[in-house]
Amino acid sequence: MFFRQLFEPLSSTYTYLLGCEETGQALLIDPVIVTMDRDLAEIDRLGLRLAYTLDTHIHADHITAALELKKRAGSRIAAPAHDRLPCVDVAVEEGTPFEVGSVTLQPLHTPGHTDGHFAYVWQDRVFTGDALLIDGCGRTDFQNGNTDALYYSVTAKLFTLPDDALVYPAHDYQQRRVSSIAQEKARNPRLGGGRSLEEFRRIMESLHLPYPKFIDYAVPGNRQCGVCPPDLPDNLQQYCRHMTESPQG
C-alpha cells in the first residue's frame, strides 16, 4: 500500500494519496485545484494511475481538483450521495464500502459542519474531513451546518472508533499532521473530556467567526465538482492559480 499526506498552504488543506500496489490504482481524498500538478507528479513518481478522487464534503475554502483531474488523468469522481451532485460518477453512502483495488474505505456520514459531510475509515486510520480537527472541529454556521448534529457525529460515531485509530483531518493551521481518537477524546477543547452537548453549544455560539472570504465562489464551483468562477476578484485569484511549489505534509 502507498500512503502520502500532502499539504496545500493557502487553505491549509491536507490531501491524502492512497495507492494499491497490486493494481497500480490510486485515490486522492480532498484534492485541491492549485496543487493538482504536484499530486499528479507524486502519483506518477510512485508508478500509480489515478483512478478516483473522493471529497469529504462541499468545501468552502478551496476549489476541489476533482473535475480537472478527471479531464487530465481520466479519474472518476466520487463524493457523498447526500449532496446529489450531477457531476459525480460514484455516489458514496454509509454502509457501502468504497473500493479502489485493494484499498477499502468505510464511509461514515458525519453531518454538522455541512449536512452532507463524510469521514472515511481505512485500516488503522480515519480521514475526518472538517468534522474532527486536531484539538478542534469545523464550524457549524453555514452550508446547513448544525451544532447538535456535529456533536453526535463526533461523539457517537468518530469517538466510538478504536482509541488507537489515527485521525487525519482535512486541515491544520499549526503544522500538525496527525492525532488519534484517544487524544481527541481526552483533550479536544471543544468535544473532548466528556463535554456535554450544552457545553459544546456554548463553545460554538461564542466563536463569532468571520464570514469565509472564498465561500461565495468555492461552494458553487464545488457543486460542479471543481469549476473556477470566471469573475474572481484579483485578491482571490490565487485560489484558482496553479502553484509551482507546494509543501508536502
Overview of the molecule:
It contains six helices and twelve strands. By secondary structure, it is an alpha/beta fold. The protein has one domain: Ribonuclease Z/Hydroxyacylglutathione hydrolase-like (Metallo-beta-lactamase, Chain A, 4-Layer Sandwich), CATH 3.60.15.10. The protein is globular, with a radius of gyration of 17 Å.
| Strands ordered across the widest β-sheet | 1-2-3-4-5-6
Helical stretch tally = 6
Give the total of beta strands.
12
Major sheet size, sense and barrel closure: 6 strands, mixed
CATH architecture: 4-Layer Sandwich
Low-confidence stretches: none
- Mean pLDDT comes to 95
Per DSSP, what share of the residues sits in E-state strands of 2 or more residues?
Answer: 15-25%
Please estimate the helix content: 10-25%
How many domains would you count in the coordinates? 1
**What is the terminal separation in angstroms?**
18 Å
Q: Can you write the helix and strand succession as a string?
A: EEEHEHEEEEEEHEEHHH
Domain Metallo-beta-lactamase: 12-171
Keywords: Hydrolase, Metal-binding
GO biological process, one term: hydrogen sulfide metabolic process
Protein name: Zn-dependent hydrolase
Write the layout of secondary structure elements.
Blueprint: E1 2-8, E2 13-19, E3 25-29, H1 36-45, E4 49-54, H2 66-73, E5 76-80, E6 90-92, E7 98-100, E8 103-109, E9 118-122, E10 125-129, H3 147-156, E11 166-169, E12 179-180, H4 181-187, H5 197-205, H6 215-222
Parallel strand pairs: 3-4, 4-5, 5-6, 10-11
Antiparallel strand pairs: 1-2, 2-3, 7-8, 8-9, 9-10, 11-12
